[in-house]
Amino acid sequence: MRRLIIGISGASGSVYGYMALQALRSIGGVETHLVLTQAARRTIALETELAPEDFEALADVPHRDDDLAAAISSGSFVTDGMLVIPCSMKSASAIAYALNSNLLVRAADVCLKEKRKLVLVVRETPLHLGHLRTLAQLAEVGATILPPVPAMYANPQSVDEIVAHTVGKALDQFGIANDLFKRWRGPQAKE
User: Residues in the chain with pLDDT < 50?
Assistant: First the structure.
């Protein structure tokens, strides 16, 4: 069985993380380890009708963000990598400079040092030069930056379809087959 860490930071867009957990549960074959930051817990309450416990119920193993002794804090605990969805600029900055003050950042740092896939769905706009430098630093140390940018060729009809596109693209990064979004097949396929 594959093993994937899902981190949800306090950035706007916790529904991205929720849909990722739902998709992974539906697809099966992937053991999920979840870390919700304290800020994520607050954002969930502000943006959704869900509770943090709803997110944790979808994960195989939920972890407390203050538990720096959790299995996912060690490189000897083998995973396929980590998806931080959404990823705040605060978390991105901490990851870029290995400021391991919480479990989300530590688990991401472990992925980088072990050369495992780290995908960050960075949710911020507009970006100033400091943000861009942080994202460049992350790319240089091995992270994949995957902002939630919808593909209009799919002609999305709902927010869920827009969210599903980003989640599907993120799962593609780990080689996890999914049919969450309409894939481009060329202009002929539209007719």
Answer: none
